[in-house]
Protein 1
Amino acid sequence: MNKKLRLFFAGVVSLGLGLAAASCSNDDSDDLLPAPLPKEQWSKTLKGNGEELGAYPDLYVNYWEYTYRLKDHKDKVLCFKGDFPHCRYFSFSLYDDNTGDVIGGIDDKNILPDEGSENPFLKTVTGEHSFTVCVVPSSVSEQTVSRLGLRNVCRLPADIERVAVVVREYLGTSPDGSRPDEYGGTDLPAITAIDVATGRQTAVPEHVATNIDKITSQVFTQKSDENPTMPFFLAPVSRYYPNNSTAYLYARTHLQSDSVLVFSFIPAPYPTKPEEYASAVARYWSICLGSCADTRSYYSVCDKDARFVPGQPSTFVVCLKNNPHLADVRAKVDEMNQAGGQVNLFVWDSEKLNIDGKPIGEVIAVMYRNILPDASWEHSIANMLPTAYKDEAGEPIDHVTVPERQLAHLALGDYGPLGVKYATKDFLGDGGQ
């Protein structure tokens, strides 16, 4: 543990936020049990590529959760202190753990750094980059918040029984950016608690079992899965621990061994350094393929790894592993790339067994994800209208009333994907280009 966190756990709870050191007296600290290390306070890493989480997580994200019973601790403010991680995107999200609904949170760019530190998501930083985020029950007055000197305050509704605090990190790296790193090159934030009445440090609530790793979206068939085209819709905000800073286009289809799925569009350009984050039309994008049989994700490519040239169309080809002409499909994709194309190939193994021991199947969900999309950009998916995923009145295609706002290829033009299934023989000819 670094020196800063040693002091933090020793009871020096200045928080870097103007909270008087006297608010955490030695007498109170001596009564507390030795604090666990940050990694012991949080869950194990919930990996987007772990093939365990439902609701189609991104394969390039790591999550950590800390869940506690708010109803038993409404007299406490929780403080999460650490260093900003080295990653593309970082956030705190708060959820009602009984329902999965989002109830608050804060994105990396909006987190004020501790005194003497800087926020590396606003500009390149070489010095201190620590922060403190405070989770505050709604019953705590603004006067108390001011008296305690709290910043980066995330409020909790009064009627919530259990709160899940989730940290997200996309594309975490070592501090020098030279290699991937599960924790973004730093410790997870340390968790402490403040007694609202006394302003002094108190025991942290028990980390209780969460529902996050039990979630799954609804699994059902759709008649439109058999259609030759696969339109993309803007996903409505789900009740499955969503990232409120992300907009998704979703589509799904039944792909068989004698066909190939193709979609092309111009992806959103993405920033390559913090100085570009503020003006970026999206912080990050990815294409993610999941199984409609279990709502888990299995294949993905993100902006930095995709065949992608800003402002030019990229093509995405999906072929089943058991397609008898897979080798020819691979050769065709290589030929297209050698001719200057930007073609990305996914080989979907429909016979792969999931953690439940069942095949992931041939019905595929495709997600196009944009983090922090700029709604002022004319091609932003954030400006589309969401379409009901499925209800008693029908499927998404049955709810299209304003196609120029609901169908991506109409709403976004060249920046909006539309999937088409080709017979393999047609794809290998000219039909799939």
Protein 2
Amino acid sequence: MIVILKKNPDQQQLDRLRSWLEERHIAIHPTVGVNQTIWGLVGDTSHLDINLIASLDIVDDVKRVQEPYKNANRKFHPADTVVKVGSTTVGGGSLTLIAGPCSVESEEQICTIAQQVKASGATMLRGGAFKPRTSPYSFQGLRNEGIRLLSIAKKVTGLPIVTEIMDASQLDCFDDVDVIQVGARNMQNFELLKVLGELRKPILLKRGLSATYEELLMSAEYIMAGGNENVILCERGVRTFETYTRNTMDVTAVPVLKQLSHLPVLVDPSHAAGKYKLVPPLAKAALAAGADGLIIEVHNDPEHALCDGPQSLRPEVFDKLAGDLRAIHELVHR
């Protein structure tokens, strides 16, 4: 349920309404706009008399929200959410470019790539330390050492770092991580999402391999219900009957998620395509569809990469692409 308040409501009446709702175990999530204030009511609102609330002098309108996701719902929060990450932001018209290797392999590798992508205009550095792999015999990442090396690259370049968590037990290693990524396989790891909801650190939530839009938003709801509203959605391709590409990038997800939710939306064309030649056109399509930014894999020696070399761009290719993406972003936001 959402309660739209009149402009400059009487404070005493406002306090009485708040107390009345809290006595009924209803949490209030206020959104203060220029012309109106919206209260999003979270909890069991089925027993609330909508007509009684609407009759109050301070209330302009009351509406029930049918969707099961409340905090992530645009009806609760009409304005786009902007997530602050260090000195940069995600959403609100800014262009977010997250770039780096699939896996951290060495200090020289991650620092070299970090400097190269920063020179091309990347706003954040990505790199896998804990790697969820289909095969138990594949490279599993450098784990704690990988995060230490990412922290060195962060000191060298000043770029905020983004890396994936696989289990809540790893959280102690993530103190220096600026954005915690939840991968497709963990999108519905609800116990992990609950723990991340207790943080106030930005969470990059990737869509599952076969997840619907509502399922993605319900996973975001798990995090936000815990009090962490710093959630960034990410479309990374879904599994279809097509086998030519690694996954199928769902461009439709961008405008649909923008319509349903106020959260920023990024796209990962690298995991969607699985082939580096397809990454630039997919990245451009994502921005043209209204995405707030991209997360792209970049490696200075893809042929010898320990993970996902075939989908990684060389730094010089990323540099050219970044220039094209800035031009598209400027055109879309005119």
